[in-house]
Amino acid sequence: MTTSPDFPAPVTAAVDFRTIDLRGRNLTLAALRAAVPRAKGQTVADAEDKVLQIISAVRGRGFAALSELAERFDGVAQEHPLVPGEALTTALDQLDPAVRAALEESISRARKFADGQRPRNVDVELGDGAVVSQNWVPVARVGLYVPGGLAVYPSSVIMNVVPALAAGVESIALASPPQKEYGGLPHPTILAAAALLGITEVYAIGGAQAIAAFAYGIEASAAGPALEPVDVVTGPGNIFVATAKRLVKGVVGIDSEAGTTEIAILADDSAQPALVAADLLSQAEHDPKAASVLITDSEDLATAVRAELALQAAATKHAARVQEALSGPQSGVVLVDGLEQGIAACDAYAAEHLEIMTRDAAAVAARIRNAGAIFVGDYSPVSLGDYCAGSNHVLPTSGTAAFSSGLNVTTFLRAIQVINYSRDALAEVSGHIVSLSRAEDLPAHGDAVTARFPGSNG
Is residue 352 annotated as a catalytic residue, yes or no? Predict the structure, then answer.
């Protein structure tokens, strides 16, 4: 194409979107996992020492430690992190009406999906007078973390709070980093979203220290009221938040180790390069460490997507951040022989967000085993899931989608088994219990049954 002053050449950005060529290679699952793009540099192990120090400080010195950490990391002078109720009310009153309408629509859709997720209680009759039940019971108290940093995430307020409410949790606390430009409070849009959902216990605490405060609680002091410990901690965050969640798991339940965002797109030559590039870029703008991965068997598509990324990255608001993310070792094109190897690569990568842009996308999506969430076809971009799909955007990252799930109602529920046998029902299986207890050399187990039937020969 020729250019002139009236038709200048399009501006492009320097994006080093690397290629990993898996074609012609018969790789094991372990080899595939080693081959797909992953972030280099700081790891959970690297962050662990720092996070352990933060957890120890919060456990040992409570609000005093939180105050010091707020000043060190956020540049905020803080006596007590509890957000005043009037700040929540003011934030909601001053919220842009368009943003409020969008939040309300997102809440409505998320509630419908969450309400549909709640599992039913089950009663199973195994014989006359022999009933075993499973009852789903909400945890008593949860701590929900909403990150700050390079962006504002009122959508994460919705994603954390709505399933907790749908589960029936009665005590909900929310934490988000203090912002110097807002007087040491979390961003007002975060506060407004909390107010929309009826959350009144909100703390200006960021990072690993928020996770520690939720897990262990903080006693009341001259600075203010106690922060009671929670049963479950959820929410996304950076590597320090993810590490803190890993370290307190067992003290509290966690949803997953949701770290820096990632997107993978499985595409063939039917995909539209401009849409593929736009979706890769949409996640790259989150963070310089965000991962954007294209898995395809089409070299022509890969070439066209690279060209689109250069054009679109130059035009986007956060161009420098996007370029760094797309050029990092965590991003790139994975070339595969065909659909079968592409699906295998997707399962090895286990993406937080996986888009399917292939022929018969729904059928391909049904074959994926490992992903936090799957987005099917041209009109289901990850951005839809981030805000208004009704699905939850708090999802496992860094390959953990191979064994963990995104945030959902069951995150806040416990399955309690209830055993209710009559005398006759116990008598029917008493001999089996005695036999098994002796086989395991635990005869007192059998004796606990025969004691209920004096005079028997058990």
Answer: yes
- Model confidence pLDDT, tens digit, residues 356-381: 999 999 999 999 999 999 999 999 99
Cβ-proximal residues to 229 (8 Å cutoff; 6+ apart), any chain? 141, 214, 215, 216, 217, 252
Nearest by Cα to 242 from 210, 208, 213, 291: 208
Dist CA 56 CA 45 (whole Å): 17
d(CA 105, CA 99): 10
Parallel/antiparallel/unpaired status of strands 201-204 and 232-234: unpaired
- Is pTM beyond 0.70? Reply is yes
List the chain domain ranges: 19-35+259-405, 44-256
User: Quick one: fold of 44-256?
Assistant: Rossmann fold (3.40.50)
Out of 353, 355, 440, 445, pick the active-site residue.
Answer: 353
Could you confirm whether 355 is annotated as catalytic?
Answer: no
Give me the half-sphere count of Cα atoms (radius 13 Å) on the Cβ side of residue 376.
9
Catalytic residue among 257, 262, 285, 352: 352
Q: Is the dihedral of CA 187, 101, 392, 115 positive or negative?
A: positive
Nearest to 144 by CA among 80, 86, 89, 213: 213
pLDDT tens string 162-200:
999 999 999 999 999 999 999 999 999 999 999 999 999
- Cα separation of 246 and 241, whole Å? 9
For domain 19-35+259-405, the CATH superfamily is Nitrogenase molybdenum iron protein domain (3.40.50.1980)
DSSP 8-state class, residue 144: E
